[in-house]
Amino acid sequence: MAKRVHNFNPGPATLPLAVLEQARDELVDYRGTGMSILEHSHRGKAYEAVHHETLARLRALLGVPGDYAVLLVQGGAHQQFAMAPMNLLPPGGHAAYVVTGRWGERAIAEARTVGEARLAASTEAGGQYARVARDDEADVDPGAAYLHYTSNETIDGVQYQRVPAAPAGVPLVCDMSSDFLSRPVDVARFGLIYAGAQKNAGPSGVTIVIVKNDLVARARQDLPQVFRYATHAAHDSLYHTAPTFNVYVVCLVLRWLEQKGGLGAIEAESRRKAGAIYEAIDDSPEVFRAPVERESRSRVNVVFRLPTPELEAKFLAGAEAREMVGLRGHRSVGGVRVSLYNALAPESAELLAEYMRAFARSA
Amino acid sequence: MAKRVHNFNPGPATLPLAVLEQARDELVDYRGTGMSILEHSHRGKAYEAVHHETLARLRALLGVPGDYAVLLVQGGAHQQFAMAPMNLLPPGGHAAYVVTGRWGERAIAEARTVGEARLAASTEAGGQYARVARDDEADVDPGAAYLHYTSNETIDGVQYQRVPAAPAGVPLVCDMSSDFLSRPVDVARFGLIYAGAQKNAGPSGVTIVIVKNDLVARARQDLPQVFRYATHAAHDSLYHTAPTFNVYVVCLVLRWLEQKGGLGAIEAESRRKAGAIYEAIDDSPEVFRAPVERESRSRVNVVFRLPTPELEAKFLAGAEAREMVGLRGHRSVGGVRVSLYNALAPESAELLAEYMRAFARSA
Q1: Which among A93, A269, A318, B93 could bridge B145 via Cys, Cβ 3.0 to 4.6 Å?
Q2: Number of Cβ pairs closer than 8 Å across A and B?
Q3: Which residue in the set B27, B224, B245 is minimally distant from A113, CB to CB?
Q4: Rounded to whole angstroms, how far apart are CA atoms A338 and B245?
């Protein structure tokens, strides 16, 4: 029996044990083909089956409408920070960005290397982000090429529990990296969704893009082929060599998700896990302080602080001694961050909540 | 004992069995850490050790001079077709391309979406490429921002057995994807080398870039951060989430390469493998025809034709029956292609040569 810690890493993150075991068992000889999935051609039958199954499962799980393309690309959300404006921002046009955390900051900064990106709203206050933006405070020009937001801010622990409104005719673009596949999504409300796989969907090295066909059709054409959504859409994401193993693991995760009951079931579990941690926080306000406003609290990245750096260090050391790892807050903000992605067992979240209660009693 | 075929795939391609077995054995619990390498944070100790070992091994194996950066990025050679001109082609400047096959065609076409890319030489004749370019036929303006060539054309089987000359002050840029790590390279003669890992260096999903610091320093700064070599150089290729598992497998391959005796030893083995196949071709000119001129013959991708499509099909079927797979020529050119990457056992090449001789006798 392999050792298994409670892995609260923010991404790359915990994966289902059953997925890892299957990947291990198939690693040297993929289903009797006499070679590893790592060694199969991206143009061969074995990998192509995995590739198309992955695309089909994403469509089915998320209920992606027929007039959207689902793409598998490389470069993570960071590359999408650039590719979204490169494709969707016409010369002389402008886009609107709502910023509710550090990734939104990066997204707008990168967009500004491409064209005009206007800050429609920011919830930054004193260097911190503690909430999502209200629709009525976002100043979005009706002529904006798109409205960009980040559904979950991994570092700040700020998450939208609704889809924000956009003016009629302004497509919504969403960086969904860290809560993608953690709950159902009404894809029809979006022009573009992108997500690095390394939170809920699989390993790092592959990025999922869901984009409406009409946006692809009217996107800029004066770009390098490799950066055009149209290129990847026209070739079923096999324009160039796919990150084959990474896609294969995503495929295994999607099968596991279906066995779990799909996105409705996973959302219910996600609510329970996050509920357990927030309850432990709220029950001991003298020891744990959640900086994020209640209705903006993330169910995938729960952040909190302790009264002193010494207590935080003691808390983290105690957690590590109990084989609960990956709880240190992002280096830019400090504190504690509890990442509760799909593959984190509910028992791990409960164990952490118990430890928090015991810690609070003894503190 | 797992089944193991003779894998002549052109990429993704065969990997050393010892590497696959180690990856399998460590997949669920990476060295007693209680999690998979797939689940480790790219900012954690376990992965960072792998990452920096990979960079250090690349430096050591290739003897990379101190004034070069070694980068690990995503997107394959296709993304470098764009990133190289985006970084190195100044506004109003021009670059020179020598085209000796289909990948060179793609490289110059992509560069032309970025700026002015001039065809310095092409060896295309009647829709085919059969040789590298002579230095005296390449018309390179001394003011060119760089001179680009492809050291090995995977589809056409055309390989440079020397480093082409460039006018003084014109940096040499090389797509080395398919013969990277198959022989020693004098890195100091290049401004930029790039290579998708999925031939000799590892799995698909990670790209190795070696670039001279002075080129990085004077590269364009008005690009998205994620496409600037400077960004990745400044962050030791951890600006954003690395494709962690892919880099890990590259690291294992580099260790295996060192155990094999390094690039000198692997080149000697590569010569023997290619020699066996070319000998089998040349010994039966009535059955096998190598379209590439002798001094431009690739040691990593040997291409040949049979007199009729029927004989080619019979040849490929017979190979498959002997568990020799991946021999079909690229769909754009047809014929037979024998990819002889580092991890292909010499015995597999010998077995194929024997089969070719037997086939020729019976044909």
Answers
A1: B93
A2: 222
A3: B224
A4: 23
User: How close, in Å, is residue A276 to chain B by CA atoms?
Assistant: 23
What does the alpha-carbon distance between residue B28 and residue A18 come to, in Å, rounded to a whole number? 10
Largest CA distance in chain A: 63
Q: Please answer whether residues B249 and B23 qualify as being in contact, where contact means their C-beta atoms are separated by less than 8 angstroms.
A: yes
Percent of the residues in chain A that have a pLDDT greater than 90, as a whole number: 98
Instruction: Give the model confidence (pLDDT) of A127-154 as tens digits.
Output: 999 999 999 999 999 999 999 999 999 9
* Residue that is written with structure tokens 């700026």 in the block: B115
User: Which residues in chain A have their CB less than 8 angstroms from residue B241's CB?
Assistant: 11-12, 76, 78, 196, 198, 204
A199 is catalytic: yes
The answer to whether A78 contacts B226, with C-beta atoms less than 8 Å apart, is: yes
- Strand duo A94-99 + A147-150: pairing: parallel
In this structure, the number of other CB atoms found within 10 A of the CB of residue B235 comes to 12
Q: Which residues contact A250 (CB under 8 A, 6 or more apart)?
A: A54, A72, A197, A201, A202, A203, A206, A208
**Model-level ipTM above the cut of 0.85:** yes
Catalytic residue among A156, A175, A212, A273: A175
What six digits make up the tokens of A213?
Answer: 């066909």
Phi/psi zone of residue A292: left (φ > 0), alpha (ψ -120 to 50 degrees), beta? beta
**All residues at 6 or more sequence positions from B180 whose CB lies less than 8 Å from its CB, including other chains:** B193, B195, B199, B200, B201, B208
CA neighbor of A13 nearest in space, from A202, A194, A177: A202
Angle at B69 between CA A207 and CA B110, to 5 degrees: 50
The residue among A48, A82, A68, A57 whose CA lies nearest residue A201 is A57
The strand pairing partners of B325, in sequence order, are B7
Omega prior to A167 cis, within 30 of 0: no
Measured between beta carbons, which residues in chain B are less than 8 angstroms from residue A82?
Answer: 224-227
**Best of B25, B29, B39 to mutate (most A CBs within 10 Å, chain A):** B39
Per the document, the length of chain B is: 363
Distance CA B336, CA B350 (A): 16
**Percent of chain B at pLDDT above 90?**
98
- Chain A residues within 8 A of B12 when measuring between CB atoms: 38-42, 47, 241, 244
Give whole-number Cα distances, A296 to A101, A123, A152, A362, B334, in Å. 12, 11, 9, 30, 58
- Per the CB < 8 Å rule, is B243 touching A74? yes
pLDDT tens digit sequence for A32-74: 999 999 999 999 999 999 999 999 999 999 999 999 999 999 9
Would you state the structure tokens that stand for residue B138, as one six-digit string?
A: 């390449």
How much is the pLDDT for B1?
64
- Which residues in chain A (128-157) have CB-CB distances under 8 A to chain B? none
B205 contacts in A (CB within 8 Å)?
74, 205-206, 242-246
